[in-house]
Amino acid sequence: MSLAISVIVSGISFGLVIGIVGFGLVFLYKTTGVANFAVGNMAMFETFIVYELWKGGIGIWPSVAIGMVLGGVFALLVYLGALRPFDGRGNSNLLVRTVALYLLLRAMADVFFGSNQPYNFPQLLPHSGFSVGPVDIAWADLITIGIILAIGGAFAAMFRFTDIGLQLTAVSQNAPIARLLGVRVRRLSALAYVLVGMVALVAGLLVAPKQLLSSNMMDPLLLYGFAAAVVGGLTSLGGVFVGGIVVGVVTNLVSTYVGGDLALASAFVLLLATLAVRPHGLFGSPSIQRL
Amino acid sequence: MTGEALQLEDLYVKISGARIIEGLTLHVGPGEIVGLAGRNGAGKTTTLRAISGLVGRTGGAVRLGGRALPAQPERVALAGVSHVPEGRGIFGDLTVGENIRLGRRAAQADGSLLRRLEARFPAVERLRHEKAGRLSGGEQQMVALVRGLVSGPKILLVDEMSLGLSPRALTTAIESLVEIGGSEGIGVLVVDQNSTMLSTYCDRVYLLRDGRAEVWDGSGAASSSYFG
To answer: Lesser CB count within 10 Å: N end or C end of chain B?
Structure first.
C-alpha cells in the first residue's frame, strides 16, 4: 500500500509535466485555432540550447535563465517563420505545417546537437526525499508539482484579471467576433507562442534530467499530452492538468504493477475510452458551432 | 465628435465564385440612420461583412471620411467602424461587463460615453456581473449595441437586430439607436428584413436587389410586389 501511495505521488508529478505539454497544445489550439504537434520538439530543441549554454561554461542556472528568454524568442520565430505566412489557408494547412515542423526540429537537433546523444543533463532538483510513515516521497516530485501549479496559477490569473487574458478568451471563443471588436488576433497568436515557448522549456527541463537528453525525448510526452488533453476535454485549460494527472497516475501504476512496456498502451486505452464514452472529456463542453 | 461618412462605391463581392454584390453604391453620413432592406439571400449581411473585412471585396471601394478602409476586421474596427453582427456575437461565458470591456478596445473613449450609454440602457448596467449567455435575446441585443457603441465609433453597422426580439424590445432598441446616433454624431447602417421598421425610423432606406442598392421611397408598388 505504501508503495502504491509513492507511485501515485510520483504519478501526479509526472502527470503535471504531461499536463503542461498538453496545456501547450490546448492553449495554442484555443488561441490560434491549431494544436501544434511540434510543441514537444520545441521543448526538446530549447532544452538542447540550455544544454549547449551550460556546456559553454556559464553555470546551469544562468543557462536556464537565458534559455527562458531564448525559448520565447525561438517560439516567436517558429510562429513568424512557419505559421504566420499565408495563415488564411485554413486550419488543416496549418496543422500539417506543425507536423512538418515536428520533423524539421527533430532533424535539426540531430544535426546541430545530436552527434553523441543521448547526453546526461545536469540535475536541477534535489535527489533526496523524506518519509511520511512508511511512504517515501521525493522532494523533486513535490517541487515539480509546485512549479507547475504556480505556472497554472499564473495563467489563470492572466485570464481572470488582465486585458490580454480577456482578449485571449474572446479569441478562443469566437475569433471573428473578437476581430470585429478590434482584437489584433495575429499579435495574440505571437504572444501565445512566446508564452508556450517558455512553458515548453519548463517541461523539457523537468524531463531531461530524469531521462537523458536526446532528440526524441519528448515523443512519449507529446502522446501522453494528447491523451491528457482529450481526457481533460480538448478545450479546457484547467482540465488538461487533471487529464495529465489521470494519465500520469494510471501509466505509473501500470508500469509499476503490470510492466513498463504497457505504460504507453494504457494511455491510449484511456484516450480511446474517453473518445468512445465521453467524447468531450471531463471538462470540455460539447462543441457548438455558430456565428 | 467630428463625424465621418461611410461611402461604398461600386462594390463587388464574390463568395465561392458566386457574385453576391454587383456594383453596390451607398453612403451613410454622420448622425444619419440608414436602412438596407432586401429579401433573404439578397446580400444584406454580405454587404456588412464586406465593409468590415470579414469577406473579401472583389472590386469597388469602401471609404470612411474619404480614406479607403482596409479589408481586415480588426483594422476596420480600430478605424472607427463598429459591427454588431447577426446573432449578436455575444461571448456567452463572459460577463456583460467583460463583453463591454472588449468593445472599449477599439478606441480610448472616455468613460462619459459609457455612462451615457448606461443611462440609455439601464438593464445593461444592472446586469453587469451576469454571464451574458444567461440573458434574454432582447437583453443580449442591448449588450451587443452598447458593446458596439462604447468605443465611440464613427459608423455603426447593425445586422438583423429584429431577429428573435419581441416587438417591444425591438422598438426600444431602434429608438435608442436613433437617439444615440443623432446625439453622438454616429452614422448607423441598419440591415433588416423588417422593412416597416426601417421605413419608420430611418432617414433613408436602400433596397438591395440583384446585387445593387437603390433608394427606396417606402411606398412604391414595386417594393410591395418585391416583398410579396
So the answer is: C
For residue A284, tell me if it sits in a domain: no
Domain containing A186 equals: 2-126+136-277
Question: Does B113 score more than 70 pLDDT?
Answer: yes
Distance CA B46, CA A216 (A): 49
Mark yes or no for CB contact B77/A163 under 8 Å: no
Domains, chain B: 28-55+70-227 (3.40.50.300)
| Total domains, chain A | 1
Tens digit of pLDDT for each residue in A222-258? Answer: 999 999 999 988 878 889 999 999 999 999 999 999 9
The alpha carbon dihedral of B14, B15, B18, B22 has a sign of: negative
Mean pLDDT value across residues A52-69: 95
- Listed in order, strand segments (DSSP E) in chain A are 129-132, 135-138
Q: What is the dihedral sign for C-alpha A104, A107, A112, A116? A: positive
- Sorting pLDDT into bands at 50, 70 and 90, what band is B221? very low
> Is any Cβ of chain A less than 8 angstroms from the Cβ of B71?
no
Chain A from 174 to 203: CB within 8 A of any B CB: 174, 176-185
The verdict on ipTM greater than 0.95 is: no
